[in-house]
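Usage example:
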Amino acid sequence: MRQAGLTAWKTVEWLLLAAVGLIFVFPFLWMFLTAFKTMPEVYQFPPTWWPESWQFQNFEIAWSSGPFLTYVWNSFLVAAGILVLQLLTGVPAAYAFARYRFRGREALFGLTLIALMIPAQVIFLPVYVEMSHWGLVNTLWALILPYGASAFGIFLLRQSFMQVPDEVIEAARLDNASEWKIMWTIMVPMAKPVLVTFGLFSFIYHWNDYFWPLIMTNSNEVRTLPIGISMLKAAEGGKLWNVIMAGNMILVLPILAIFFFAQRHIISAFVYQSK
Amino acid sequence: MRKAAAAHEMTASGHALGRTEATKARLNLFETIRPYLYVTPALAFFGVFFFFPIAYVIYLSFHDWSLLNLDEIEWVGLANFTALFEDADFRQVLGTTLIYTLSTVALGIGIAFFLALWLNRKAKIFGLVQAAVFSPHIISLVSVAMLWMWLMDPQYGLLNALLEFIGLPGYTWLSDTKSALLSLIIVSVWKGVGYNTLVFIAGLQSIPRDIYEAASLDRSPWWRTLTRITIPMLSPTLFFLLVINTISSFQVFDTIYIMTQGGPVNSTNMLVFYIYEQGMDFYNGGIASAASVILLGIVGLLTLLHFRVMEKRVHYR
Amino acid sequence: MAKVVLKQVTKEFNGQQVVKGLDLVIPDGSFTVLVGPSGCGKSTTLRMIAGLEQATGGEILIGEQPVNDLPPGKRDVAMVFQNYALYPTMSVYDNISYGLRNRGYSKKECQVLVEEIAEVVGLAPYLKRKPSQLSGGQRQRVALARAMVKKPQVFLMDEPLSNLDAKLRNQMRVELTSLHKQLGSTFIYVTHDQVEAMTMGDQIVVMNEGQIMQVAAPMDLYQEPDNLFVAQFIGSPAMNIVPAAEREDQVWGFRPEKALLRHAGVSSVGHADAMDMHGHIVSREILGSDTLYHVETDKGRVVVKTDTESLLDAGSAVHVTVPLSSIYVFDRATGKRIARAENGVRQQILAGGVV
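Running the assembly step on the lines above writes:
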């Protein structure tokens, strides 16, 4: 009796798990399926599940509807450039916050924490004015420079640097290593897991970012992929869902692929903020 | 002769001593400023692209200006703020933002809490479902917005097809003033609930197991364990999520811009979208910066509250 | 190879003196052990010699050269840390060669030196491994090799064996001693373990509360302690201290193995040449070859160490007899030893009489 009740509950739970999983995964599947359908099939009601014939040219149409190679390249340049800059500024700052005692340390670290909390949407207008004063609007610099230092990165690296035992640093000092050298050859390699975590977080965040490029760019040479994809809709009048979904897959697939291979890292990267 | 040599030696060594003193002083100075050198690049970026803009936007909010001609800027005092609060449209925008924020936060955290209690288990399938629930969080809002526009298409969308399949009438979704805001809320909750769930799970896993073992030895019923142990122990996590979710809900922009453009009939026009339109499309720089300052005030208050509570620690640990 | 001299060296932390005006000469080529209870300033002293802490006052010389203002990397010293402090992300080879590279050796020179040293300490097969893939003993060897390869004038070691298990620790003690003989350079070794100090050092510096209590060779330290602190710190179990007969301002000490324990039933005759105490055995520890008795006597609790033949039971009434020649006399107020034991006690007996 009890055994049967348990199995029944197990079945119900499995069904529930499947349902919850589907609510979050099926929309992506639907994106994928739509991307391969013909136009008439898209506008069929009730819709078909499986494409009647697989239309690979939807991707070609999407790709050739704008300078997508430029968009992808820009997106990559921006995300990678931001990451490099954030590491160059973040590693020394985190090292100083973690390892030195100096006047004003708490206050300066407090400023960093404030920067962690307040999002870009609050101050995009004055930054835009700054950028136009410097003539940087509609350049990749306007997309990269405002994110040149990451409060989150400094915070993460600082935690990681604080865990390095003093003796290891002292051993390096006895080995005649300069502080700068200790930072890059001892501390940074030891913080590798955190660096990977932060790198994934930063890259994904800026690869996906829509708001900032929308504000700062107005020509195709400097637009990034999310902007290009969103213009697909405008260009096609919001009707060619198969082409639009095909375009979106270009944006989504790399991220889903990374997620597939580095799930643990990504989840800890995003969830780490809570600690 | 010998005396002279000795004197010579003395000056030489005195000289050498003086030099080492100087190098020593220089070295000490360098060691003192070293930490500042290390934090300067990062703080310079924060200064130029974060703290200065905060001051600048406050300055701008007391002026009449537009992006069309940045040289023409005129002091108007509080005029922008009075204009904003007298404007029924802006009051509506604030109201809509508030409704959106409250519903998104309540739903996003509430659903996540139950999902977390349920999914916090070791078996592989639970990990898989956790990953599935989380996956929308790392996808660009652009794609999420466009995908849901397609799902919510009133004529050919999958959602209405499913409704019809179970015998319900199709829904108007984004095309009606009554349902557009709700649609945006649904999209936001769908995207964000996975993050909240995983943060809750991390919080649950940090509760020491022996507390539960002690409770079960005391024959505590499950609901009392939940209300007396789990929820109090989760309070720091819960508070963190409340603040983070509230701040990010106030920033809603991408979905509005792509899915509704604030419509229909302004029913989904919210704060950041309003600032964007005023500043970038209507060239009302003053109004836009005054609205930015109001947003800054809201976010700043939340941040302050967060730091205060973090200091006191809503903890039982 | 160099001698190390400390002149009036002090160290303050937050206004608190942890090292108080240390004067110490560490002879060239010696194996000097700094020993004392935790918090006595021995590690701080070592770290000041290394340059990891700045001396608040005084002067430190390594081979005639004042080093107070030299950074650690320029002092020609090497240090082995308690928890090895290996660079976890580098291979064994890189761990050993890191210091050489920072001193401007070419890759070729490094390779020759590293391979040579790896051969000496038996690490040759493990050069490509990471520290996490090594056993505790092997990590210890890497730490040693990393120090040795720089051929420093002075080796500094901060409790380097305390993380090893007992068997390995004994083995490493022997190896370190022979290594010292082989290299002939100056070793300064910090430990809280007096057994380690006694077995390894040729000069032992006993420290307490930031001050040097005594500097001496191991056997001198044991046989001729300068004061109560050294007398009780060196030797295990510790020296027994009892009130001196007739003199309020003095105390007597004797080592547990110098006392004779007899059953109270056996008639005892007072001895002019011995101190006699009555009491009963509180507890007994059998250590194998020796037995320790804790005896509650009319002069307080004492420990007596005997061989294991003819055991006495706990609770038995006993006599404890200590030959006067084995008694040390200390000033109660200062803790200083007053005179050579025999004479001091004799005179006292003549003066006041114990019997």
